[in-house]
Specification:
The chain is of the alpha/beta class. Helices cover about 25% and strands about 20% of the residues.
C-alpha cells in the first residue's frame, strides 16, 4: 500500500473525516506510524517544519516510519 497524506482544510468537515480515516488506518497500521495532531499548550501540534523536532521526540510516534499524516502540513 502507498503512503497516505490527508490535507486537512479548515471549515470543510476535515476533523470528522480525519477521525474516520484514523479509525480506518488503525485497522491497517500500528498507531505509532499514523500522525494526528497532538494537543499542545495553546495550539495543536501539526506536521509543520517548526514542530518536527517535537514530533521526533514524542514517544507516541515512530517518526522515521510514519506512513499516514492526518494533519495540517
Amino acid at each position: 500500500m502507498s503512503n497516505f497524506i490527508f490535507y486537512h482544510i479548515e471549515k470543510c468537515g476535515g476533523t470528522s473525516l480525519r477521525r474516520i480515516l484514523y479509525d480506518y488506518f488503525c485497522k491497517i497500521y500500528p498507531q505509532n506510524i499514523i500522525f494526528t495532531p497532538m494537543p499542545g499548550h495553546e495550539m495543536q501540534i501539526n506536521y509543520l517544519p517548526d514542530n518536527i523536532e517535537k514530533i521526533k521526540q514524542n514517544p507516541r510516534y515512530d517518526f522515521h516510519n510514519i506512513k499516514v499524516i492526518l494533519s495540517h502540513i
